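User: Assemble these into one structure.

Assistant: Restating your components, then the assembled model:
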Amino acid sequence: MNNSPAWLQELSAWGTSSRMLQDRILLVTVAPEHWAQLAPEASVRQLRFAGLWADVRDEKLEVNACLARDGWYVLLRATPLDGTMGLPSWARWYPAADRMQRHAHDLWGVRFGECNPPWTRHGAWKADEAPLRTPVTPQERGRDRYPFATFSGEGVYEIPVGPVHAGIIEPGHFRFSVAGEDILGLEERLGYVHKGIEWLACGRKPAALLPLASRVSADSTVAHSWAAALALECALGIAPTARGVVLRGFLAERERIANHLGDVGAICGDVGFAFAKMQCSRLREEWLRCQHGIFGHRLLMDCIAPGGVAVDLDAGHIRLLRANHRDMLQRWQNIAPILTDYPPLQDRLLNTGRLSTVAARGLGVSGYLARASGLSLDVRHDRPQPPYDRHPVQPCLQQRGDVAARLQVRMAEISASVRLLDALLDDLPPGPIQEPWPPGMAAEGVGVVEGFRGEIVTHVRLDDQGNVARFFPRDPSWFAWPALEVLVGGNIVADFPVCNKSVNASYSGCDL
Amino acid sequence: MIRILRTILSNTTCTDAPPQLDAHALEQAGIAVRRMLDAQCRASLAIRQVDAGSCNGCELEIGALENPYHDLERFGVRFVASPRHADALLVTGPVSRHMAEALLRTWDAMAEPRLVIAAGDCACNGGLFGTSYASLGGVDQVIPVDVFIPGCPPPPERLLLGILAAMGRHVRA
């Protein structure tokens, strides 16, 4: 605590108790009457809101809020007073808290402020039921009337879209309010792919948690399973093997490149530049085939294990991978300049879907969304955990915050990550890939990982037998979705697909 | 501009390289699909894809069917935006309780005869997510399914073989 920043000491002074959960993650227990005051106190100290979730421990409901700054994380924990089942809402200070509070209300029955409109529930169970606390009686979802914000005025009309969309993507509902061609407002209604991940995690053995974490959002399968494994390891105080941790970084960087390639192609494809879409999808397919050949899975699912990884590389694999990286870098360097030099493409992307630095900071976005809007946020840089401690990563920054900037951040990250892959191979230590898993005990831990989309924060709590009692994977999409609502304002309806693709938020990752 | 065009041209040639690895199997499966389609669907099959609650893994692989390696459209199979234009419904994910109605209404909107293909372990039997307060399990809990394509997620070539199976099943029925 002695070398902790001043803001952290000031904030922890509000708590009834505080302890370091793990490196640079502080747990502060606060009295419920101070909950309302803590949001402005944190906000004025420029803390970023990084998540909120409920839990029940020893029959007592408790709420965790995660705040972050400069690679430090503080977990504020409060138990609502008996009988009230509620805490004041933080949405006024941290707008992104709204949906997370409503999610916690729908699943755990904890109330935030006076108004708790449904988010995840959709009317599939009764408003006063909480499926994660007591079994619920499922009911017909029915035509529940969701309170969409309405815009009025001469010539203003609405375009409802979804939940079944026109393309091959996940389901969600968008309500556009439009005047002429310009979008006045967009309201998202998500939760359609809620399939009970938090409920399914309860009671699992640590090793059985990882297949579930791998499927929180398939494009971030490595990042989510790494974050879950990290949380488990921090809880029990074990360290993954040296070889395992380098391989984790290796897998995560491969996943980043695969997704960025897909996104770069899709962004260009959405404005009609089919050349880039075809080239990038070709590169992505070659990349996935290489992964299938070496790791046995095209998307790298189930490659992370508690205490290390489940896959290993031999000398032959390393030769193949080096050739694969060289090949990719060469082809990518051939294609990339065309995208930045092609005026018709840049003409469509520049100034489209702008997210200002102020808005990005206010909404608490991370990943390429933050970096394209001038916020230097990258877990790999701010919190250099192994293997990134030996391979420093410089955040790729852009200032404009438009679709072109988000494209450029991704393009820069592809090149940087391919080089990082080679450096990781150079540094691959010999030894076992997995640490033996210790006997279980009651403990909790937090895993923070930079996925391709941004910062993932996963909280895991184990019960006395060492089984999972609580699992909450906080995907960056919780913050990317509200940012999409903001950045499409003033754009034309026809540009929504490219704006949406440039954000590429996950539905499954936050519907859970 | 000349530099850009030159690079584009040289890259385009590079794209047209024939598929590797599974080229033979894919070609064979594709030709078989083509014959079925010629007989059954006047040379094309229009597919409407619905994610009923997946983790997005199956969508990534279905999307890969459209890349230059697999190039699904050369077999006359294409994805359409409306169920009213579709011959087949390709469903992924366990059916979440919240998506059941949307899935049913999409199916209702299709003209008969209509095929239903369940893609991925979750769509086949609920998979990892099973049946819970939030999930109804496999697609056949909500609409009748003609063909099941297992896999988590099924790779593109297996998806194409599933389409072939769907057509075979359709012929028998």
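Chain A has three domains: 6-112, 156-189, 197-428+447-511.
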